[in-house]
Write a structure and sequence with these properties.
Immunoglobulin-like
Amino acid sequence: MPGIIKNGIYAYNTPSAPVALSAASIAQTSFVAQWESSKFAISYRIDVATDINFTSLIVNNATTRLLSFNVGSLTANTTYYYRVRAVNNVGTSTNSNVISVTTSVHNYSQSHLV
């Protein structure tokens, strides 16, 4: 079986699941999903949903080579869930742990109060 190379190391196995970390830069309509690197991973795939079972996906299998992903166009004061998979030419890992994040509450200025 041909291996793949990353940083001078050949990989003959599917990468292990990454560890998802708490979200950063949480705002009213966005947050940054983060995770730890996985040995032999070439890229990562992320899912974001409005339910813990990931049946209502708003980001489905998005790919990045980074250890973070900006999630935008969200609704204020709403809970979202994300999970990540590591990928290489051999295969895709199982899902990471699931992280929940609640976007910030919308702040109205005095002129909008009734």
